[in-house]
């Protein structure tokens, strides 16, 4: 099916969903494997723009098709940011696609991921109703937390139209250190008093990239103490942009997000991967068969963002409740099943 | 429930862990929302996850309503029993199953007390961030069910932001395990959906919590202002400065009066409002940030600003703040705590309107709030012995909630909807949205047996009764926030 619907408003999005029995929303296509399904495609490119942004509230609301870059620029202008380091900004990734894919970046380590910053969503359910869940204020406990559920749900339970996010003031300075010891010092650094902002190991590297954020004067003093404990040096060139844009992944090669825990990072040994957020997730590129086997053995799972590998790798549990929730939000199976 | 069903239920539990005599049930009739009281048919006290699973499956087979309960501190009536149903008291599932300092996490049973997690993790320099005021008594299971907050939500988020994994028995009897030691997930965020379900989906059996390194250093400032507006402006100035304090709190004159009466807290004289701002982090970072904070506070024209000079002074500031709720009990025979949220920039306006509404109803309202995230806690003072005053207080509370929604906020920041605010859910969500939530609820609980009567507007409401303060509250053991 090559049909592409191009709504330009929430109302048209509702029409688009209702117009056809099987649909999937797509953003900029930066994680194409997620929408590689038999379905009419709804391009979200026409639903873009920041609807509300009040820096004093630490919140913004934007249409799902808004490119991350547009959001990052608007926030930066007011000295704010999304602390989880959204990925693929230069590649044009959209806010909605990022939520549906559930992809956070290195900054996830300090203040939490995408799920911790999404406050509210407006979405179209399988029956074609435009619904709002969550709220627009930084603190809210009313109703079920569907906004979090949509993180990583791959557009299989509804089409996101608009989202409200919490933001933080951007720290005045950031300093990246390269530390010897790599994965060996993961838990020591993570538990230390320094409150690192990110702890990553880049593909093919054994050293750790440790980012510190805060007032400039403090960072200088802190880094001296850090080097006394773990030898290393200050990184002058920016290593984060290349990681953010997956420039290390060969064109056409698969790209898989794996949720891992610090105790299980040996599962990924020898694989081409970017280990991120203190060993809590990794982006892996390479042959999927072997990775799948390793993940199964370790009780881990992954999702393929790019390439021809199966959508889900490793262990998969599909409890009866998953089907029941799918039925609740999408009784006519308007959206593809999660396993598709 | 028939006598036969009750008998079979009793047969499932060893002696002493099945309660049915009125004097045994009395302690479970009410929770932190003391205006409601319902006697359950029985209380069961499981000691293991297996027993909880068997109980829920029994309830499912018998279509028997059940209410899971921890310490019963819910301020929204979240653990209020259901007539003809049972209470599943989870306090004996209180084991910390695993503490993993290297991965900074703890796996706990639902009956573990919130503060015990931090107490156990402290030797490793770690802590569990969510800190509701009842943290010395409330349980993690209840925190998860109601997505509890605390004073540090602006920077650290609520309970949901700290739950990494959940093993639960759903109301259908299905046992699920979601998430785990990783801070990231693959696929939909089931833990996120389960947290804050208000007991309508099932019962959490094991919860994996993320722990954070304890902040090395604090800088806490207390500043008094002539007017609430000035205090509100100071909050705006702090926010605009780009600092990210761990906590920003405000108490109004009546709340101050209460704190003075209760714990002999001392505040700058002649102040209509006191602001508390706390920075935290590595000492070098706090040292640099405190200079900026002190400048901002000085520029905000306080009557007086008092930075805590040591840990003792810091504790004293927090003691006054955290005691404010129960302290209000000294000013009034009864009170209701509300939990609305407004956009931060409209705090001043919200407080003015609350004042107007209070004057109109003739009741006094004390205000203590998490100013950093716009979370108001108006305490509505009333005397339950005066006929009609409880209803009047409830009506005022309702007006305040509607105002919060009108201003673009929420009917609850951290207490949940529960029994108390269920009639206000339609103020925030459309009929279609409530229908969507009902469908979700039905997916988890097709029979509607898990904590029925909570969250959704409903006809079967127990009537309001006056019962005065909770006995533990009178004793100063618990407080409402």
TrEMBL record, chain A:
Q: Which GO terms describe its molecular function?
A: FAD binding
The residue ranges of the FAD-binding PCMH-type domain are 1-170
Q: Which Pfam families does the record cross-reference, listed alphabetically? A: FAD_binding_4
Q: What is this protein called?
A: FAD linked oxidase domain protein
Q: What is the lineage of its organism?
A: Bacteria, Pseudomonadati, Verrucomicrobiota, Spartobacteria, Chthoniobacterales
UniProtKB/TrEMBL annotation, chain B:
Q: Which Pfam families match?
A: FAD-oxidase_C (PF02913), FAD_binding_4 (PF01565)
Named cofactor requirement(s): FAD
Q: Where is the FAD-binding PCMH-type domain?
A: 36-214
MF terms from GO for this chain are: FAD binding; oxidoreductase activity
Q: Which segments carry the region annotation Disordered?
A: 459-481
Keyword Oxidoreductase present in the record's keywords: the answer is yes
Any idea which UniProt keywords this protein has?
FAD, Flavoprotein, Oxidoreductase
Which InterPro entries does the record cross-reference, listed alphabetically? FAD-bd_oxidored_4_C, FAD-bd_PCMH, FAD-bd_PCMH-like_sf, FAD-bd_PCMH_sub2, FAD-linked_Oxase-like_C, FAD-linked_OxidoTrans_Type4, Oxid_FAD_bind_N, Vanillyl_alc_oxidase_C-sub2
Q: What name has this protein been given in UniProt? A: FAD linked oxidase domain protein
What is the organism of origin for this protein?
Answer: Chthoniobacter flavus Ellin428
């Amino acid at each position: 099916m090559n049909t592409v619907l191009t709504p330009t408003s929430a109302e048209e999005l509702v029409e688009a969903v209702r117009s056809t029995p099987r649909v999937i929303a797509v953003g900029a296509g930066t994680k194409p494997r997620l929408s590689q399904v038999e379905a009419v495609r709804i391009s979200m490119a026409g639903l873009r723009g920041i609807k509300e942004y009040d820096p004093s509230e630490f919140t913004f609301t934007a249409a799902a098709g808004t490119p991350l870059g547009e959001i990052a620029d608007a926030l930066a202008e007011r000295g704010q940011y999304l602390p989880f380091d959204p990925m693929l900004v230069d590649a044009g990734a959209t806010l909605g696609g990022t939520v549906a894919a559930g992809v956070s970046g290195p900054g996830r380590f300090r203040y939490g991921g995408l799920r911790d910053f999404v406050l509210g969503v407006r979405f179209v359910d399988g029956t074609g109703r435009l619904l709002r869940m969550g709220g627009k204020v930084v603190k809210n406990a009313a109703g079920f937390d569907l906004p979090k559920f949509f993180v990583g749900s791959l557009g299989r339970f509804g089409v996101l139209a608009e989202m409200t996010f919490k933001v933080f003031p951007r720290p005045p300075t950031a300093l990246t250190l390269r530390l010897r010891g790599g994965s060996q010092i993961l838990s020591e650094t993570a538990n230390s008093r320094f409150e690192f902002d990110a702890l990553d190991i880049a593909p093919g590297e054994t050293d750790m990239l440790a980012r510190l954020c805060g007032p400039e004067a403090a960072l200088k003093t802190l880094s001296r103490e850090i080097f006394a404990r773990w030898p290393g040096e200050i990184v002058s060139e920016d290593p984060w942009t290349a990681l953010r844009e997956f420039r290390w992944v060969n064109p056409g090669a698969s790209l898989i997000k794996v949720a891992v825990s610090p105790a299980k990072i040996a599962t990924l040994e020898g694989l081409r991967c970017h280990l991120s957020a203190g060993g809590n997730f990794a982006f892996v590129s390479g042959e999927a068969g072997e990775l799948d086997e390793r993940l199964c053995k370790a009780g881990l799972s992954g999702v393929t963002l790019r390439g021809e590998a199966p959508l889900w790798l490793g262990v998969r549990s599909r409890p009866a409740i998953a089907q029941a929730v799918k039925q609740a939000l999408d009784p006519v199976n308007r959206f593809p099943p999660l396993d598709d | 429930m028939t006598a036969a069903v009750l008998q079979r239920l009793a047969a499932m539990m060893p002696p002493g862990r099945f309660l049915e005599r009125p004097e045994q049930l009395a302690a479970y009739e009410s929770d932190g929302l003391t205006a409601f009281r319902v006697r359950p048919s029985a209380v069961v006290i499981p000691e293991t996850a297996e027993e909880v699973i068997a109980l829920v499956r029994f309830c499912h087979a018998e279509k028997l309503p059940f209410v899971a309960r921890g310490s019963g501190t819910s301020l929204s009536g979240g653990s209020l029993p259901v007539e003809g149903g049972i209470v599943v008291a989870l306090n004996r599932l209180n084991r910390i199953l695993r503490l993993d300092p290297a991965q900074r996490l703890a796996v706990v049973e639902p009956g573990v007390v919130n503060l015990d997690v931090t107490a156990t993790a402290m030797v490793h320099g770690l802590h569990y961030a969510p800190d509701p005021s009842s943290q010395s008594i409330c349980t993690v299971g209840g925190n998860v069910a109601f997505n509890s907050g605390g004073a540090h939500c602006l920077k650290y988020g609520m309970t949901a932001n700290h739950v990494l994994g959940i093993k639960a028995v759903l109301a259908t009897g299905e046992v699920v395990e979601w998430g785990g030691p990783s801070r990231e997930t693959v696929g939909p965020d089931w833990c996120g959906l389960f947290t804050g379900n208000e007991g309508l989906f099932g019962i959490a059996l094991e919860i994996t919590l993320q722990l954070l390194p304890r902040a090395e250093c604090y800088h806490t400032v207390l500043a008094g202002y002539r007017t609430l507006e000035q205090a509100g402006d100071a909050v705006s100035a702090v926010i605009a400065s780009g600092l990210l304090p761990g906590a920003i709190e405000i108490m109004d004159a009546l709340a101050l009066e209460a704190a003075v009466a209760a714990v002999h807290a001392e505040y700058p004289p002649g102040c209509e409002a006191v602001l508390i701002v706390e920075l935290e982090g590595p000492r070098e970072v706090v040292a640099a940030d405190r200079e900026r904070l002190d400048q901002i506070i000085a520029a905000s024209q306080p009557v007086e600003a008092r930075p805590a000079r040591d840990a003792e002074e810091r504790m004293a500031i927090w003691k006054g703040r955290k005691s404010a709720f129960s302290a209000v009990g000294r000013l009034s025979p009864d009170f209701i705590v509300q939990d609305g949220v407004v956009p931060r920039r409209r705090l001043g306006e919200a407080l003015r309107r609350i004042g107007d509404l209070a004057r109109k109803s003739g009741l006094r309202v004390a205000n203590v709030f998490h100013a950093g995230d716009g979370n108001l806690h108006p305490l509505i003072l009333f005397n339950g012995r005066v006929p009609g005053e409880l209803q009047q207080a409830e009506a005022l509370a309702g007006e305040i909630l509607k105002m919060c929604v009108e201003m673009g906020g929420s009917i609850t920041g951290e207490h949940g909807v529960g029994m108390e605010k269920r009639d206000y859910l339609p103020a925030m969500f459309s009929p279609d949205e409530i229908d969507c939530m009902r469908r979700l609820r039905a997916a988890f609980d097709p029979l509607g047996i898990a904590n029925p009567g909570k969250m959704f507007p409903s006809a079967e409401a127990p009537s309001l009764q006056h019962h005065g303060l909770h006995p533990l509250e009178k004793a100063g053991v618990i407080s409402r926030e």
